[in-house]
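Methods, example record. To illustrate the input and output format used throughout this study, we show the complete record for Uu.00g101670.m01.CDS01. The sequence lines were provided to the predictor; the line carrying structure tokens was produced by it.
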Amino acid sequence: MASSDTPSQPPAINYVVGFLLVGIAWGLTTPFIRRAARDHNPPAHPLLARDDVKASWLKSKLYGAFFAVVDLLRNPRYAVPLLINLTGSVWFFLLIGQAGKVFCNGVLRLPVAYLLCLELSLTVPIVNTLAFLFTVLGDWWVDRKVISRNTWIGMALSLCGIGLCVQSKSG
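The corresponding predicted structure is encoded as:
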């Protein structure tokens, strides 16, 4: 019996899609960021060649780091995957907020039947496992790395472990 003032629970598919999107945003972009940073060949900056900058260890390190970051961010092969990756962090923050809210509402105000099995304590391991899986797939796609049998087994065991955690929370 649900009363009219009881907030409705979002369907579990919303959380599954959220987990997948964050896992893809974090995992699949990592190989692209790594390759862009590895292949990046920035131009020399005249400021770094000045005598006063060369004479100061601190100035040379600070200016060098500043120009390295600026050059990478101006490179779309690096900046676009980084932006997607950071967007995944925003989605993750929102997902944690929603999972925590659903859990708290379920414990504090709603009957146990409404408690979503994917509570806050599962959000982090689920998303991190998916990010790992998508990083492995991204490495295969971007760098043509061969996925070894042991890696496949590890990926399957990771998914089984997450499944067991979800099952134990719902039972």
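Annotations derived from this record:
The radius of gyration is 22 Å.
Residues 12-40+75-170 form one domain.
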